[in-house]
Amino acid sequence: MSPGPRWSVPESWSWTSIEDIANVTGGGTPPANDPSNFADEGGIPWITPADLTGYENTYIRRGRRNLSERGYKNSAAKLLPSGAVLFTSRAPIGYCAIAANPIATNQGFKSLTLFGGLSGEFARHYLKWSKPFLESLASGTTFLELSGSKLQQVPFPLPPLAEQKRIVAKLDALNAKSARARTELARIETLVSRYKQAVLSKAFSGELTVLNRSSWPSSTLGELAFDVRYGTAEKCTYAPEQTPVLRIPNVANGRIDLSDLKHASFNEKELKKLALAQGDLLVIRSNGSVDLVGRSAVVESTAAGMLFAGYLIRIRLDLKRASPFFIQYWMQSAEVRRTIEDAAKSTSGVNNVNSQQLQALKVSLPPLPEQNEIVRCIESAFAKIDRLEAEAKRALELVGKLDEAILAKAFRGELVPQDPNEEPASVLLERIRTERGAAPKPKRGRKAAS
Question: Could you tell me the superkingdom of the organism this chain comes from (predicted)?
């Protein structure tokens, strides 16, 4: 089969189909309830799509389990040769690696055994890059699956053999540079957290402003608050005509987020008791992640009048003595976080901190004008750090787009120069057809591994 071209390629290339350049082979799984079908050591290497989850290497030798001789004979699995391109055709579509040795797969694969010495690395790059196109050919209700017959008909842009190797070498070199860039950019997220903690450490040691911490009087959080209260246990739904209720997702990022509000109905007494006021501090008191326990947000004017859920604690501060933003940043500092997390940790799977523990937290409190100046310095420093993080994220996105552009150029014949002295792909395809026609027909059935 010679499908129509999906895009223009050099004259020395040919558009062909996967069935013209490879045998497509499925896999199988023996009955899982019989342990004798599997072997912990030795046996026949066998992989499932789970073995390729997060797998970045080009070649693979084995998966988590091997098949025993019995399991191999009792399944539709087939031993594929070294160099076979192992492609997941369902759950999910698009994982791809090359067999480093003879290996079998489960039914989640449609694997390619290439003819004529074609480059498995080139085919792997093309299949991985073609994932969106291949998914568009798949069908299924529970999960998408690309059938063997559909995969056989997939158009394939075939360069001359030597050019395939040059393309793979160029892609590998560029991918190595991209991987280094991704690693360095990913480090920035960790550095951002460290930088922010360094800013907070200086802020609450008095190093960001004029006054030294030794002159700051000590207090407890409870002494600075005149009302500390747990939220409502009322079940909330999406009913905009009722009173909005802030929940953990609305405060988890350190700021009040009103993008996903739920609502409930309350009487006047409940509204008076639990309504939020500008300047209130909302603290997460219970969560499966200990990192979220004790995280807080300051209520601003847009959330005033709303209520709050039972997994939150409202701390209403004496605003003549304490800035809620100063307290909120102080609660993010490493020293306070350690105290909260040590108190909250639980082996039950749910971590909790109660109002008494929060009120007992000791804070060195400068005069209110000094608190406001510290908050200003923190927010100025954080804004610069956040800009750096945003730039790193944009750069990471650009690296991804660059990778896509490089692959697109590779499969259009624009990544490396063509050599007019090389055998064109059309001659290669004709030789493959001749060799396949002359090959003896395979016997029916499947021979077990020796």
Answer: Bacteria
pLDDT-derived band at 1 (thresholds 50, 70, 90) equals: very low
Q: Which position has the token pair 């940043």?
A: 329
Place of tokens 């739904």: 237
Beta-carbon contacts of 189 under 8 Å, excluding residues fewer than 6 positions away, are 389, 392
In sequence order, what DSSP letters do the residues of 68-93 get, joined into one string? -HHHHHTSS--PBPTT-EEEEEBSSE
Across the chain, mean pLDDT equals: 92
Statement to judge: residues 359 and 433 lie in one domain: no
Torsion of CA 417, 132, 98, 160, to 10 degrees: -30
Owning domain of residue 223: 217-365
pLDDT digits (tens, 9 = 90+) for 376-411: 999 999 999 999 999 999 999 999 999 999 999 999
Q: How far apart are CA 383 and CA 74, in angstroms?
A: 62
Are the C-beta atoms of residues 37 and 31 closer than 8 Å to each other? yes
22: closest CA among 146, 100, 119? Answer: 119
Contact 106, 46 (CB under 8 A): yes
In a domain, 447, yes or no: no
The total number of structural domains in the chain stands at 3
Looking at the domain assignment, is residue 449 inside a domain? no
Residues 374 and 254 in one domain: no
User: Which candidate, 168, 177, 117, 97, places its Cα nearest to that of 407?
Assistant: 168
In a domain, 8, yes or no: no
First to last CA, the chain: 35
pLDDT per residue over 131-177, tens digit each?
A: 999 999 999 888 899 999 999 999 999 999 999 999 999 999 999 99
Phi, psi (degrees; rounded to nearest 5) at 362:
-95, 135
CATH number at residue 30: 3.90.220.20
In this prediction, residue 254 carries a pLDDT of: 87
Based on the fold, state whether residues 387 and 343 are members of the same structural domain. Answer: no
206 — pLDDT class (breaks 50, 70, 90): confident
* 394 exposure class (CB count in 10 Å sphere: 0-12, 13-18, 19+): exposed
Question: With 80 as the cut, is the pLDDT of residue 85 above it?
Answer: yes
Distance, CA of 42 to CA of 317 (rounded, Å): 67
